[in-house]
Design brief:
Number of strands: 16
Order of helices and strands: EEHEEHEEHHHEEEEEEEEHEEH
Shape: globular
Strand order of the largest sheet: 6-13-10-11-8-7-14
CATH superfamily of the largest domain: Cyclophilin-like
Distance between the termini: 31 Å
Structural class: alpha+beta
Strand content: 25-35%
CATH class of the largest domain: Mainly Beta
Number of helices: 7
Length: 289
């Protein structure tokens, strides 16, 4: 449920966790990001940073400038002024990311895991079986058939938790047990009902179903999209994956390596939760891609 009044939990003398609800759902997450945007716009003296999560916001503040009681009161004022959830709209850029599904890069990773750690079912096969799909083609159609909402960032710079906005495209997957010791940068992962793009070569536990040569994190900030920040995505942004064949994949990879790749983004896009709810109401839920 979404709380009528947020819960404030002190985290030492410089942090507060503000909980807005007690479950993971899209409306609650949208509220988290809408309130975060509103508080940032207010430029409260003494507020250092806001860290929005799935159902809460971590508040970092300077106690020498503003007290716990005062910052809590300021934020409650903005929460009360939010109005109806249905009236909220956010700037929500859409990033288009090419994916080579059932690819050579992640297959090599799976083979290495089977050889060195333990045997397991090939990840795309597991996804097809658990989600009652026809095969790899349908897996790619369903995964690429929806926009994804950036619900949160965390665990590693640039790692975004992506939630499917079209419920017909939601799948489920268990995590590796034990996890992988390495996962290629650019791997498309799926764990629980969340998908992601691995921003770097890291350990991991999500099922791996594809690969993109397009970076979502650039520590060196060499590409134009990373001029102002090393992470591509922000909470409240959207991602749309689209399938490509090996030839297109190799072309994009060469552009990235040359340092002249330009990310495809609709930076003007906005998201209306009223329109989204209206769209959901008109869906035929029995349809699958």
């Amino acid at each position: 449920m979404i709380y009528d009044k947020p819960k404030f939990l002190p985290g030492g003398d410089r942090f507060i966790e503000m909980e807005l609800g007690d479950e993971l759902n899209f409306d609650l997450n949208f509220l988290v990001h809408a309130l975060t945007a509103k508080i940032r716009e207010a430029e409260i003296q003494g507020l250092i940073e806001l860290l929005p999560n799935m159902a809460s916001i971590v508040i970092s503040y300077d106690p020498d400038t503003i007290s716990y009681a005062d910052i809590k009161a300021e934020i409650l004022t903005h929460h009360l002024a939010m109005g109806s959830l249905e009236d909220m709209e956010l700037l929500s850029p859409i990033y288009y990311i090419p994916v080579l599904y059932c690819d050579h890069v992640t297959r090599a990773c799976w083979e290495d895991y089977c050889a060195k750690i333990t045997e397991k079912e090939y990840d795309p096969d597991l996804m097809v079986r658990l989600n009652d799909l026809d095969g790899y083609d349908q897996l790619a159609r369903i995964h690429s058939g929806t926009e994804y909402w950036v619900a949160a960032l965390g665990f590693y710079p640039g790692l975004a938790s992506l939630i499917a906005l079209d419920p017909r495209c939601r799948m489920t997957a268990p995590k590796y047990n034990p996890p992988r010791t390495w996962t290629p940068k650019g791997t498309i992962g799926y764990g629980g009902s969340v998908t992601c793009v691995y921003p770097a070569q890291t350990p991991g536990g999500y099922q791996i179903i594809g690969h993109t040569p397009v970076p979502v994190c650039d520590i060196a900030q060499t590409l134009p999209a990373f001029k102002d920040d090393l992470a591509l995505l922000r909470p409240g942004d959207r991602v749309r994956f689209f399938p490509v064949e090996r030839e297109e994949y190799d072309y994009v990879e060469r552009r990235v390596e040359a340092g002249n790749y330009v990310h495809n983004v609709a930076s003007y896009a906005k998201f209306s939760i009223r329109d989204y709810h209206k769209w959901l109401d008109g869906l035929e839920m029995k349809e699958r891609f």
